[in-house]
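This entry is set out below.
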Amino acid sequence: MKYNVALLFVLIFFGCNPKNESDETVAGQESREDTVMIENQRPSVNPESKLYIWKATADYKKIRNTAAGPTLQNVDTLIKGLNELYENVYLEKIKISGDTIYTVIKNATYLAEQMGSTGAEVYVADVVLNLTSVSGIKYVNIDLTEGSH
């Protein structure tokens, strides 16, 4: 009788302990959770986008967006707006550290080679004006491959 109770206890114990495949890893392999890639989706281009606070002009003026409200006072929304305004330049946020936001333009060929000097200058002015409008951000670091403009 004691043998049957002990056997029943062991069967219940192991039967109720399901294995979780994600907890097991083979030596030298990463778990599935570590290999999942999250891709940033580019917003659709919208030249009429109002997701900006400032817009620079080629004659060194800046125009304030009168429709800009407190909801635009965050870097994610402003970066989305900049990416909607500029079809061939895609800005991504890396991190915010202290009073600096770190960004990257992974494929800067259009910005550095095809927009011309004034176009590139206006783009960088738009990025800096908008991102430094956010409370706590004083500096913008843009990582990109240098080109002729």
Summary: Residues 116-131 form the longest helix (16 residues). DSSP finds five helices and five strands in the chain.
